[in-house]
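Re-run with default settings, no changes from the original entry. Doing this only to confirm the output is reproducible before filing.
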Amino acid sequence: LKNELLAMHQKDQRVRDELAKAGSLFEGYHPKMQEVHDRNAERLEQIIKQYGWPGKSLVDEDAAHAAWIILHHAIAKPALQRKLLPTLKDLAQKGEIDKAEVAMLEDRILYFEGKAQIYGTQFDWDENGQMSPLPIENADKVDELRKQIGLPPLEQTTRRHRENISQTKEKPPKDFEKRKKQFVEWATAVGWRG
């Protein structure tokens, strides 16, 4: 099980790297990437039905992290992410999954639903062409909340995201409003928004 989860994650990364090098990853949700994400999500669901969540005590820390990434990347499966969030919150209290990973999933769900995030873990291009945190519910308390789950201050993370993005082929969208509109259409089509 551990080896299977790690292989699933490696496949995800391999396809992502191939698409990034080709310069085709960053224009919407690439069908090849979605195919890998969907296939991995379906297998993860089967694993969960058979074993429960593959946490650290079942598979080890690396494979548990791989399982989380598979779930985190299952962005076209809103029901799966929503269903597992309460389970993962409980497991984080028992040390089976990192609290920061659960926070990232919660923020991602909130963003896809069109709501402000809690922990400031989700980033995207802003209207000024900068990689920035998406809207945050209580921005004045975000660093306090981040510290509670083991994340560095938001300013530090923002700097790191901007440095990392400068090393890739990803560029700000040419038409910011068009990108936002396409995202809302996608989020509605897959069931994140009504």
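The two ends are 36 Å apart (CA to CA). The CA atoms of residues 9 and 119 lie 25 Å apart.
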